[in-house]
Amino acid sequence: MTPLTSSPRLEKITPGNLESATGIRVRPDQEHAVTPVVESLAEAYVHPPGVAWPRLIMDGERPVGFLMAFLDIDWRGDGGSVRRSGLWRLNIDAREQGRGYGRFAVASVAAEIRRRGGHELYVTWHPGPDGPEGFYLGLGFRTTGETSGDQTVGVLDLTTASL
């Protein structure tokens, strides 16, 4: 991975950058494992305000990725016995992968969860050799032993993580 030499930033999705956000495309071999940005934005729209936290990842004037966090959701759908926050979607444009933007995205979500008083960051991923498991484990996530649908659930302890 080439370390970042620039200062990426997050932007809220607006009418002015919607086309840039929906233009983010992962590699063809990753398409089965990640939801397209347009579908993620539709999903954010149908959830109560404050649950989804979609952001465009920018480097200068160049859109390089998209992330969407989930904040304080009812994980089990049973009225709130377990509440969690984490990274819901991460799409780094195929031309921009391997440059540190994924790590920046995870660190940004971690910072937002910490800002809101959270101590854990959850993520799910498709298992398999072409999936992102190595990326997440390399950042310090550990598997929980749970699945969400057909995806592996991982968690990062934000009290000890150095992101």
Distance between the termini: 16 Å
- Class by SSE composition: alpha+beta
The Cα radius of gyration reads: 15 Å
* Number of DSSP E strands: 7
Total DSSP helices: 4
Instruction: Let me know the largest β-sheet.
Output: 7 strands, mixed
- What general outline do the C-alpha atoms trace? globular
Please report which band the strand proportion falls in: under 5%, 5-15%, 15-25%, 25-35%, 35-45% or over 45%: 25-35%
Q: Which strand order spans the largest sheet, edge to edge or round the barrel?
A: 1-2-3-4-5-7-6
- Provide mean pLDDT, rounded: 94
Q: What is the H/E order?
A: EHHEEEHEHEE
Residue runs with pLDDT of under 50 for 5 or more positions: none
User: What percent of the residues sit in helical stretches (DSSP H or I)?
Assistant: 10-25%
Give me a quick take on this structure:
Helix content is 22%, strand content 34%. With 163 residues, the chain is of the alpha+beta class.
Question: What's the SSE blueprint?
Answer:
Blueprint: E1 9-12, H1 18-22, H2 37-46, E2 52-59, E3 62-74, E4 83-92, H3 101-115, E5 120-125, H4 133-138, E6 142-148, E7 151-157
Parallel strand pairs: 4-5
Antiparallel strand pairs: 1-2, 2-3, 3-4, 5-7, 6-7
Question: Could you characterize what this model shows?
Answer:
- By secondary structure, the protein is α+β, with helices and mostly antiparallel strands.
- It is built from four helices and seven strands.
- The protein has helices at 18-22, 37-46, 101-115, 133-138; strands at residues 9-12, 52-59, 62-74, 83-92, 120-125, 142-148, 151-157.
- A hairpin with a 2-residue loop joins strand 6 and strand 7 (151-157).
